[in-house]
Design a protein that fits this description.
Layout lengths: L1 H26 L2 E5 L5 E5 L3 H17 L3
Antiparallel strand pairs: 1-2
Length: about 70
């Protein structure tokens, strides 16, 4: 009985932890720029460089009817 309770508690804790991590990841808006040579530049959404590009991307998606 103890093993079953411990297993259920472990599963419940894992599910809760996964949901917290997923929510945290969704809040972070990032801009990833990929170059032809395989290099990548990742900018946080709060930076001025990424902000203007992300604003244009949101406008383009709104005009296309995407959410």
């Amino acid at each position: 009985m103890r093993k079953l309770a411990a297993g259920a508690l472990l599963v419940a804790g894992s599910v809760v932890g996964a949901r917290i991590l997923r929510r945290r990841a969704e809040r972070r808006l990032r801009l990833d720029v990929y170059y032809d040579d395989g290099a990548m530049l990742s900018l946080a959404g709060a930076t001025p460089e990424a902000g203007s590009v992300l604003a244009r991307a949101h406008e383009a998606l709104a005009a296309a009817g995407a959410s």
